[in-house]
Fold:
Amino acid sequence: MSVVVRRNIPQIIVALIIVLMVIFYFFYIEKPVSDAFGTADKALSDWAIVITAIAAIVGGIDILRYHANQIRKRERRQIIFSSIVIVLEIIMVSLACYALSSGIAITTQPNFQWLYTYLYAPADAAMYSILVFYIASASYRTFRARNPPAILLLIVAIIVMLGNTSLGAMIWEGFLPLRDWIYNVPNTAAFRPITMGIGFGLIILGLRLIIGKETTWMGRRE
Amino acid sequence: MAKEEKRRPFGMAQIIYTLLVISIVIPLLNPVGLPIGISSTTRDVYNYIENTLPAGKPVLIDLYYEMAARAELEPQVAAVIKHLFEKNCKLVFVSTITYGPIVFELLKSTAADLFADKTYGVDYVFLGYIAGNEPAVRSLATSIRGTVAVDNYGTAISALQMMANIDKAEDFALVFIASSGTDTFGWYVRQWYTPYDIPLLFGALSVIGPSIKPYVDAGQAIGMLTGQRSAAEYETLVGRKGLGLASMDAQSFAHALILIFIIIGNIILFATRSKPKPEGGRRK
Structure:
């Protein structure tokens, strides 16, 4: 394919859609024109929904393929885990298909629900809960009063932790209002520039897409 | 050589972990019932729903969390639902994450008392999982019926009594986003608040809270609830003892224990600092 078809035409389409979306999002447009664009805009959103839904199927197939390759490579450590993933994926998809063919919602299919509630849910929750052990051991190593900034961090951490708990209020009632103040004032002051920075980053990304400088979305580097 | 030393089966880390498990499990099994103060952020949310939100109006609730975040977010959601049902609000549940449908079923089973006297299709509906992330949120704002033809259980949206007059963003009085991610809040700010001026309420994990606070302070959301602490506070305000309050004792004791670790860590630091440096060598 020529460069025009492979590169320039997709870039022009993307740039045109971005410009139109910016105009219709930020500026007042006469109602008939706005309504007409609204229909096209809705179609674009619906395309995104359909593509994402199909991407989920692609993801499922990709997981299956990846773990099938792991088994084929006969890696002793990985083989058991990959087998479990494949077996469970097949079971879950089969149950979901069975639910759909029976005319009921997938999540209300009893076997699917049982596997999800009593197998997946505890495993997922346990993975997240393990973090508490890392946090506990990291806390007494990290919050050491080595220098003035570290002392400040330590004081703030103690106030926030005591403010978060009922024990803090039992020691001194001022911990909760003080935690609220830290949360509302210095914290917001620190995060606002980050949020604004992300916004500016998005604007720059949009501008780069419009002028055709950003090509990574097409699967190639500049 | 340190590497050649045999690993101790029960070292300092294991002692800390064991103490932590004890400090969490014992209060969970035998709740002490420590008193809970109400923070200004939670009270603001409660006051908005109580005094400003029009009674009987539709509210959209996006359940965007997975099992790992369920412990923190489900108590918040249950407490807010109780408050909204008390105001006779019509609740439209939706999920923009794949876990949503199962999360909703679990919510209904753990907070069965909230849904007991409510009728599906009249008081609440569940649209199910809608793929597409931000474009899906945008599409819902434009038209629900144009986005999904059926609800999570396969019933046509047009057949649901409650949905007769609910279709687009302007039909809602509030959107409550219970999310374990950060991006979700931005989607609704951009697609529901900015173009349609629909009030937003955030329900987030404790770690996410600081990063979304600027939206609240800028007035783009009416307020936010963060973590189990906010859930426990809201449960206190609405008078429903749930998982939030139940886990606060455990959280309090775990935090207290971590504080003790921090103090011990600093005592060790000062003790080693005060020792004279060995000649010709550097001390860590």
